Amino acid sequence: MGLVTSGLTAGRNALLSYQGALQVVGNNVANAGNVDYTRQSAELSAVNGTSIGPGLRPGAGVAITGLKRHVDEALDNRLRASVGDLQSAIAQRQGIGQIEVYFNDLTGSGISSQITDFFNSLSDVQNAPDDLAIRAVAISNGDALTRTLRATRTDIIETSLDFNNEIRRVVKDADRVAAEIAELNTQIVSVEAGGTGQANALRDRRDALIRDLSEVFDVQVREQPSGAVSVYVGNEPLIQHGASRGLTTEDELDGSFERTTVRFADTNATVNVAGGVIEGIIRARDDQAIAQVAKLDQLAAGIIAEVNAIHADGQGLRPFTSVVASNVVDDVTAPLNSLEAGLQNLPQNGSFYISVTDEATGSPVSYRIEVDLDGQGVDTTLEDIVTAINTDVAGVNASITPDHRLSLNADAGFAFTFGNDGDSFREDSSKLLAALGINTFFQGSGADDIAVREELKNDSGFLAAATVNHVGDGNNAGRMSALTNQASDVLNGATIFEYYNGIANRIAADGASVQNTLEAAEVITSSLEEQRQSVSGVSLDEEAIGLLKYERAFQGAARYVGAVDSLLQELLGLVR
Fold this sequence. Notes:
51% of the residues lie in helices and 16% in strands. It is an alpha+beta fold. The protein has 3 domains: 2-70 and 540-575, no CATH class; 76-90 and 159-294, no CATH class; 109-150 and 295-506, no CATH class.
């Protein structure tokens, strides 16, 4: 009877084990379309049986001793890193695309076309300096250029703020994911420590969330003996055991730019972000949006400085009776090229000319005003300029406005111009007139505030197309129109077109480089995904083979139990 009982036990164990193995196969098949599922297999082990004689222990069949999740941790780590690189490249490429559109001139109304139209219209003024309509077109084109520069700068800043908003959204989601991973840690430890089995479904969910987190930024994952995982961002722990430190954001002002940074919620310490979509957004914001704003400001500053330097030397259709400088001098007692003076474009050692005309006689008298900025002895201040004009120039009074701007007013019956000595042209070698904003075409200092001077928009006769007071002289307009081919110190030795094209070409090159990185990351990620699928994914063909194997084994065990039962019935018949 002992042998029969042992046989029944072995058969029962086999039936239960193969029934369980079939359930595992069925679960695999059911989850074949679940991308977060990890393939499982039943681990079968022989069961020790009772002794049937000296040294004879045939065993008691088979039992399921565990459910194995088919995971390659090293492969998963590589895949997480690759996914982070891919998401970073995607975010960067999308960001560059948003910035690139501001510098594409496909419609003929972009910055490049506006620059061309403006300087071409100055060439038209050179050919017909007395034509008020042509002058008005040049001023209108200049105004259109300034509006385009201002609008582009505003749009790029708005885009950088959109990047900040996207960082906030992504970090909020990442904080939720981190909290859920910590909660799953607690559940997994509780299930597996309680001896109620393996928490494979919970582990699948946790792994999926970790993959989601790796899309946000690079993470390192270390499983603890308890079954919980510790998740690190950089060298800092984010999740340990059943607790997450939490993630939040904080806005920082860098000059006039707002940057959203990622912080740990518990200490407000900065998260060292590397990889992932957050890195991509930050690079798009800092290296593209904010960087292009700075370059756009420099482009505008170059246009302002170069055009104004020539325009300030020229003459309009009529002289001035009063002029107020556009630019403020912070400290009127400081040398005009000092930081304390606060001028955007610094004047230099040299001189400029004021030509005063007695309207009764029509005879001009030219006066040279020295600007001593050689750094030796006492350098010239705004107060010194006022004193020199009031002392040396007859018919013109100079003063400083309450907001620290130079004001010039002609006496009754007099008028004045700049940059000529009778019939001869005299350049403002000090660049002071342009620095102060006197007789300039543009006002402002960068792309945020560049504008055509209101006096020109109200009266095109103030467009300084001439170098001297001659009817039909358009030489100064010609000098301005030639600026597109002249190197500018403000633009690091580039011409206006070279500098602008450099901006556009750099963005295009960055876009191409990131696209190459993206395509390489896609290839690597796809390869690693295929490798992971071969390890952890469900193959219906393989499961069909397993199904057939366990079905045959179950059938064999059932026939064995039937045979043992027949033997038992014969034994019972003998007893009766």
